[in-house]
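Hi support team,

I've been running sequence recovery on a batch of backbones for a student project. Most finish fine, but this one hangs at about 90% for roughly twenty minutes before it completes. I'm not sure whether the input is malformed or the queue is just slow. I've pasted the structure tokens below so you can try to reproduce it. Let me know if you need the job ID as well.

Thanks,
M.K.
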């Protein structure tokens, strides 16, 4: 193919997607403006540390510790009891994926050793989960990630959307009680999704 034909082909290909390309370029430049805004924002914050939080600095803390503690306990019970009762053949599959997300969170916690917000609401866990509750294990938010994992996994619409609502509510409560920083909550959705995709590749082969 001659150079002129290659150029002609290139022009036709580009022109055929002109509308999509225009939208993509608008999004591209808008995203770059967001990057500039974010850059100026982090320059303006007092110390650049985790104690300067876009949401925590403006809201709370509110004493919703009861929801923070018992909401998560209910989510975990639902996560395990539903497949144990209604899908016993696949129960091990859900346990494996839950374990992988737990291991991922433990790894990230060690890599991102943040101290809790100074004004966080202190909560009291019941005795049967006290050994699994710690301070400064912030990144990423398990209260957000684990119910969101349930939303991704379960097909039953009632359980599925219960998990989605639980993820949004517990993530919000984690912020409003200052138990977590904003990055802990918002990153949890992406990490849980990544673990979900990775789990399907790993454990589907085992199944």
């Amino acid at each position: 193919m001659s150079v002129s034909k290659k150029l002609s082909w290139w022009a036709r290909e580009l022109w055929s997607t002109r509308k999509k390309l225009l939208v993509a370029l608008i999004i591209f430049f808008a995203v770059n403006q967001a990057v500039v805004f974010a850059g100026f924002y982090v320059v303006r914050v007092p110390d650049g540390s985790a104690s300067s939080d876009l949401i925590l600095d403006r809201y709370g803390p509110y004493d919703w510790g009861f929801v923070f503690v018992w909401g998560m306990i209910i989510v975990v019970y639902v996560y395990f009891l539903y497949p144990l009762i209604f899908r016993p053949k696949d129960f091990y599959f859900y346990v494996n994926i839950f374990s992988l997300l737990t291991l991922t969170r433990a790894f990230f916690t060690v890599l991102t050793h943040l101290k809790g917000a100074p004004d966080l609401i202190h909560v009291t866990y019941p005795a049967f989960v006290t050994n699994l509750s710690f301070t400064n294990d912030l990144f990423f938010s398990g209260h957000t990630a684990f119910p969101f994992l349930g939303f991704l996994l379960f097909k039953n619409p009632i359980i599925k959307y219960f998990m989605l609502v639980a993820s949004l509510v517990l993530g919000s409560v984690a912020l409003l009680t200052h138990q977590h920083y904003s990055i802990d909550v918002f990153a949890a959705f992406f990490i849980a999704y990544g673990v979900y995709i990775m789990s399907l590749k790993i454990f589907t082969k085992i199944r």
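--
Follow-up from support: It reproduced on our side and the slowdown came from queue contention, not your input. The helical segments are 3-16, 18-44, 65-86, 91-111, 142-153, 157-176, 182-206. No action needed from you.
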